[in-house]
Amino acid sequence: MSNFKILFCLHHFLPEWLAGTEMYVLALAKYLRNNKVSVIVLIPNFGKSKTEEYIYESVRVIKYAENSNEDRNMILGKVKPQGLPVFLDIVKEVSPDIIHFHELAPGRGINIFHVEACHAIGIPIVLTFHLSHYSCFSGDLFYRKNTLCHGEIHVGRCTKCAFAHKGLNNLTGNLLKSSAMLLYNAGINTTKWPSSLSTALAFPFVIEQIQANLEKLAAISQKIVVLTNWYEKILLKNGVPKDKLVRISQGTIGDLSSINQIHNSVMLPIKIVFVGRISPLKGLHILISAIKSLNRSSVELDIYGNEKDADYVEYWKHQTKGLSNIRWKGQIQSGRVVQTIQKYHILCLPSTFSEMSPLVIQEAFAAGLPVLASNVYGNSEQIDNEINGWLFKYNDVNDLTQKLHQLIAKPSLIEDARLHIPAVKSFSKVAAQHLRLYESILNKKNTNIADPFFNNS
């Protein structure tokens, strides 16, 4: 079929922003373009009163004017962003056959108002949930910051968790939670009151809105793409119809045909690599703290990633100053992750939230590296503990240190884990599944005949 037009919507794009979602969208756009699909990327031009355009690796990117002053009411979804009419005018001008939202968030960026506006003019909608905040107030799926959550939205339970994530996991938090629930049960929505306390007391209404938004997104979209089995289960628990969901698992971006996995004997020092955004969410501080407690001659750490969080980066660079076994290597060139990390023994991913499906795990497997990661949903779905990698307790420096001690004492464990690394899926297969999904939606729209794809999620 092909020869149709897709509009991708997200908050940022390359070269200004380099992260997993942006790389995913770029790779998907390139594949579709090679299969006679016209692809345009639409993102907000934050803080600007004019619309701009540019071309990135032959992909047309439109930055629509979005000069809203983001305030409390906008973040709470009570006020629409000022750039919404500009966004909609561009959508009408582009006239895509399908619009695919890869990122939604409260505030002045692309959000549920934009999805509703596109639905109102009859454009088929696809959503991809790259993160878990569509069903979780905190976005990390850790109940009260210490226990993996089952993911089912429950106003009372989620309100208690929300206060814990705001640092109120004590008597004050319990009092606020009780007061908030009393007001909620009485139908008194304090988001209408202009204060931070009133926002906190309205947490039950905010959580209720998360549930309502999820139900609305499911109702007005043709399909919701989920990357993992674990998040598909959570969406089903929260009432998303099964026939709305399509699971398209993660794949490795780039040409893997020239990759030759190296399987030399592992000798000290253990060579560890970290690849990812340099931010508290990625947990680099946990890894650095563990490495600092070990003998420098036993372990080395190379750090690759985007350093946009200046305060965090500056602090941890200062903490590692003078440590010859910890090196900051900058950002890896796009599409060169697998080739770059081949020379290491293991990759460490100390995430402090439930990542959806970290691409870097697949990239490590493609390079022949076992992975040492925190025990959160997105990591544990890909890693068989003590088989092709190791899982340590969430946010636990001591447990990570203990795991590293074990590998230092017995490096052959790394060699054994290499033997059980699974085959990786290429991104071309991911993109081919998307192409088939789009064609199925258009086939159904044009013929009103059910396509088998819709019965094989």
Please give a structural write-up.
This protein has 457 residues and is of the alpha/beta class. Among the domains are: 5-130 and 427-455, Rossmann fold, CATH 3.40.50; 270-418, Rossmann fold. The chain contains 17 helices and 16 strands. An eight-stranded mixed beta sheet has the order 3-4-2-1-5-6-9-10, sandwiched between helices. It has a six-stranded parallel beta sheet with strand order 13-12-11-14-15-16, with helices on both faces. A two-stranded antiparallel sheet has the order 7-8. Helix 1 crosses helix 17 and helix 10 (284-292) packs across helix 15. The longest helix has 21 residues, at 427-447. The chain is globular. It starts with a strand and ends in a 10-residue tail after the last helix.
- Secondary-structure-based class equals alpha/beta
Query: How many strands, which pairing sense, and closed or not: the largest β-sheet?
Result: 8 strands, mixed
The helix tally amounts to 17
What is the average of the pLDDT values? 92
Return the CATH class of one domain.
Alpha Beta
Cα separation of the termini: 21 Å
Number of strands: 16
Reported CATH architecture of one domain: 3-Layer(aba) Sandwich
Assign a percent range to the helix content: 25-40%
What gross morphology would you assign?
A: globular
